[in-house]
Amino acid sequence: MSLPRKKPAATAPSTPARSERLDTRVLETFVGYNARRAWLVVTEVFAERMAVYGLKQADFSVLSLIAHNPGATSRQLCTTLDILPPNLVSLIAAMEGRGLIERRPHPHDGRAIGLYLTAEGEQLVRQAEQTVTDLEAETSARLTPRERETLIRLLQKVYQPG
Amino acid sequence: MSLPRKKPAATAPSTPARSERLDTRVLETFVGYNARRAWLVVTEVFAERMAVYGLKQADFSVLSLIAHNPGATSRQLCTTLDILPPNLVSLIAAMEGRGLIERRPHPHDGRAIGLYLTAEGEQLVRQAEQTVTDLEAETSARLTPRERETLIRLLQKVYQPG
DNA sequence: TATTGTTATACTCTATAACTATA
DNA sequence: TATAGTTATAGAGTATAACAATA
């Protein structure tokens, strides 16, 4: 049960701001501001939970994409995730060094290298995806399942073409 | 008019990924992934349009907050925007150097410094806020006004406490 | 000539430790 | 002792230019 909270006045204060919290009503009218704030909250929990796997956001996205797209190339990962090629090199090398992915020459293109998960990589991705699913449920606990679906659909409308 | 697009199969491909676009359906079930993708799109347009004012995202947020909270302190800005104090120093110095803000000693706390917009700062913020309002309308053009309101409300439910 | 992957490097953003002056 | 602001610095993330191998 929550007490009825008085709505703030519709005009900005003309006296020096003395309270702790500032008036953010204008910023809150922008999708960009709100998307970033929401992302910051989710990303913080994400970083905490994924630390046990030794995975950062980019690591998880890359491994998950390879899991569901075996044989994907670095170029495809870069295009899909908006990562610049030079910045993916060390990430891939680290994942390979940990024995999570394998690099096999592409059957039809001698320049390209197909990426595949190892058995260990498969297992780690499965655990990590479950962990992300769990933390997503927590961070969107204040949303109904229907609201969460709507939120995702509307976000996709913003960034997806056509 | 758009042609009916066939929905992709519900199973992941077991053959090497040969197509350009990868299967992102799993990542797209996460709020975090979608929020970041949407933010990336909005932020790119933001950077382009605000370049004419010489303002980056943090600059705009700070100036807008000061505009609507005259006398706000650095500490309040840091708390509100999740900026670390050391990272705000040069930003404030730059805005002051451009003659956009003034720093006046706080009336009741000798440690604190109240921040105020100059006349020039006021005018710039007014223009910048209008520009952001315009680009927000463009970047969320595929959303109805009602959908845009819903999107913002749901995002706030994710990051706002209580 | 264009593309894949790579190296080297620079720039921006964010984070930590320690200091000063006021409270 | 705690807080506001500052300095210096380190780390992470992101960017550009240029190269070798292949198409």
Task: Give a quick rundown of the structure.
The structure is a homodimer of 162-residue chains. Chain A has 162 residues and is mainly alpha-helical.
Please provide a written account of the structure.
2 copies of one chain form a homodimer. The first copy, chain A, is mainly alpha-helical. The first copy, chain A, has one domain (31-159): Winged helix-like DNA-binding domain superfamily/Winged helix DNA-binding domain (Arc Repressor Mutant, subunit A, Orthogonal Bundle). In chain A, 55% of the residues lie in helices and 6% in strands. Chain A contains 6 helices and 2 strands; from the N terminus they run H-H-H-H-E-E-H-H. Chain A has helices spanning 31-50, 57-68, 74-81, 85-97, 119-139, 145-159; strands spanning 101-105, 113-117. The first copy, chain A, has a two-stranded antiparallel sheet with strand order 1-2. The interface between A and B is large, with 72 and 72 residues. Chain A binds a DNA duplex (23 and 23 nucleotides) through helix 4.
Instruction: Give the radius of gyration of chain A.
Output: 21 Å
**Second-tier CATH architecture of chain A:** Orthogonal Bundle
The greatest interface here is: A-B, 72 and 72 residues
Q: State the name of the first-level CATH class of chain A.
A: Mainly Alpha
Which stretches of chain A are low in confidence, meaning pLDDT under 50 for 5 or more residues running?
1-18
Largest sheet of chain A: 2 strands, antiparallel
CATH superfamily of chain A: Winged helix-like DNA-binding domain superfamily/Winged helix DNA-binding domain
- Biggest β-sheet: strands ordered side by side in the sheet of chain A: 1-2
Task: Count every beta strand of chain A, where a strand is a DSSP E run of 2 or more residues.
Answer: 2
What number of structural domains do the residues of chain A give?
A: 1
* Helicity level of chain A: 40-55%
Global outline of chain A: globular
Q: Which H/E pattern describes the elements of chain A?
A: HHHHEEHH
Strand content bin of chain A: 5-15%
Question: Which whole number gives the mean pLDDT of chain A?
Answer: 90
End-to-end CA span of chain A:
43 Å
Oligomer: homodimer
CATH fold topology of chain A: Arc Repressor Mutant, subunit A
